[in-house]
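For reproducibility, we list the full input for the S-adenosylmethionine complex.
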Amino acid sequence: MALPQKKYYRQRAHSNPIADHCFDYPAHPDEYNWSNLYPALHGNSEVEFLDVGCGYGGLLVTLSPMYPKQLMLGLEIRVKVSDYVNDRIQALRVQHPEMYQNIAVLRTNAMKYLPNFFHKGQLQKMFFLYPDPHFKKAKHKWRIINKWLLSEYAYILAEQGIVYTITDVKDLHEWMVVHFEEHPLFERLSKGELESDPIIEKLYESTEEGQKVTRNNGDKYVAVFRRISDKWKD
Ligand SMILES: C[S@@+](CC[C@H](N)C(=O)[O-])C[C@H]1O[C@@H](n2cnc3c(N)ncnc32)[C@H](O)[C@@H]1O
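The corresponding predicted structure, in tokenized form, follows.
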């Protein structure tokens, strides 16, 4: 089974995340049939890593063999792009039996339905790699990092869970840092803490967008945050 070719799955770059597309979504995470996405896996494992706006899926494919025990899911709003990721994963599973069983993609709007898919405190890691910058001020409300959505991300993340962000747009980087730092349930990781994390180096080039930024000699800004405890501290 050959890997899919991107040229057959092109779609315009932006899909309005506020418009009402028709998406099926469960009323509750337990109502979703997860074994459709991870058919080779038995047992009660739950998704722990979430790649939000996964694009063509490069991060999932890179992390899958690094963390074979963790279930990972990419969320992608564009139908052809999510079809590509699905076909890519199916082909990889055929080419490498026993591998890539822990990754899957779901077409949905990550700005709308996350609590329908994930329990409180379920996720260990969330990734926002090269999110759409929505440059114009009037479109800032479309940005996937904003103070309302951060509360939703804090809800589905486990305490001590990690959020990874990277972008080539300095203004968006600063926007993300300010929003996370102002939020009471997140704190930024120090440079020292980043050095010991093997995922950090994968943020730069494992995705298709990261490779494009490299080809264009763009800058890359990384910021990583921890979901801190919401227990009252004296
Ligand atoms: C610039 S691309 C980056 C893709 C990927 N992370 C990478 O680094 O190659 C942003 C992606 O996020 C997707 N996206 C934007 N808004 C979304 C939303 N609300 N829900 C799910 N995906 C979304 C877009 O369709 C696009 O594929």
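The first strand starts at residue 47 and ends at 52. Residues 15, 17, 53-55, 75-78, 81, 109-111, 129-132, 144, 207-210 surround S-adenosylmethionine (CB under 6 Å). Both points were considered when choosing residues for closer inspection.
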